Amino acid sequence: MLEPAVIILRLLQYAGAMVLMGSSLFFIYALPATGPGSAAEAPWTRRLLAGAGALLALATLLWIAAQASVLAGSMAEGLKPEALGAVVTSMDLGKAGVLRAGVALLATILAVMLRPARASWIVAAALGTLATATFAWMGHGAATEGPGGVIHLVSDILHSWAGAVWIGALVAFALILRTRSPAPAGLVALHRALHGFSGIGALLVAVLVATGLANSWFLVGVDRIDGLWTTPYGRLLSLKLLLFVAMLGLAAANRFRLTPALALALNEPSRQGAALADLRRSIALETAAALGVLWLVAWFGTLAPPAAM
User: Fold this and answer.
1) Which of 51, 49, 64, 56 is nearest to 15 (CA)?
2) Burial class (CB in 10 A: 0-12, 13-18, 19+), 163
């Protein structure tokens, strides 16, 4: 009962931190600073960031309690001050969790108090970036010893950051596309955002592939490559790779087919409905695949990798 709770709470933490970081950055680099189509005029930006921060803070605190309960053998024992204190003071994952919860709580308060603007998004992005980096101590990223330890840690952090930028952008696109009949200026801003993200997306894919290979070197290893299909960790990792490939296919369709179609529709109102419907469908599928990836990472992050067997 406790193990599934730990996995779910890990997933919620990933989702909250990646939206906090990635969506804040998206508001800065992809959308106009002011005026129609800007994040400042969207009514949902503050709620999104405040909600992401609150979700991250609550899920992290509950995860610390669940982790203590797993280590203590029961929830009754794990919720005792001694067990909780041992996790947050003597274990790196607990210390990182306390930092993550504090950062998330601060981000939530600032998102509620500050006016939606570039300065507030920079603060939210910085806090989200710090929170996302702490995930390296929640999984296997900080567990490698020896000369390769720093390389693995840095690779794991970069992998999380690249994933956050991608997933945060997907969530923002999905919310923008909720509007059934956006204003012309909003459509232009949407097209610019899609076109601009395509270049960033190529860099994100490169970082994800490079860091994914590096992480696999440490966690799977060439001599245990068969662990990708003979161990629970490996099978989940293989499924994650399939979902990642699906995301690449959808992203390619967005870049080379759907975004140009929207560009044509800007001058032909009769084509706008179909172009937006296709984009909504594609972004929804890509977001669902991304959530599947996070769920798998939350799951196999609790398992022993092939290299440790």
Assistant:
1) 56
2) buried
Return the amino acid letter for 6: V
Query: Going from the N-terminus, what domains does the chain have, and what CATH number goes with each?
Result: 2-308 (1.20.1630)
Tell me the C-alpha distance between 139 and 135, whole Å: 7
pLDDT in tens, 285-295: 999 999 999 99
Q: Which residues contact 274 (CB under 8 A, 6 or more apart)?
A: 265
d(CA 39, CA 34): 8
Residue 164's Cβ-side half-sphere holds a number of Cα atoms within 13 Å equal to 31
Alpha helices for 73-183 (secondary structure H) = 75-78, 81-90, 92-113, 118-133, 148-176
The whole-angstrom separation of Cα 271 and Cα 277 is 10
Residue 229, exposed/middle/buried by CB under 10 A (0-12, 13-18, 19+)? exposed
Helix, strand or coil, per DSSP, at residue 301: coil
Q: Which two tokens stand for residue 17?
A: 């931190």
As a whole number of angstroms, the distance between CA 151 and CA 90 comes to 24
Q: What is the pTM of this model?
A: 0.95
Are 12 and 297 spatial neighbours (Cβ–Cβ below 8 Å)?
Answer: no
- State the burial class of residue 188 (Cβ atoms within 10 Å of its Cβ: 0-12, 13-18, 19+): middle
Query: pLDDT tens digits for 15-65?
Result: 999 999 999 999 999 998 888 778 888 889 999 999 999 999 999 999 999
Beta strands, E only, the chain: none
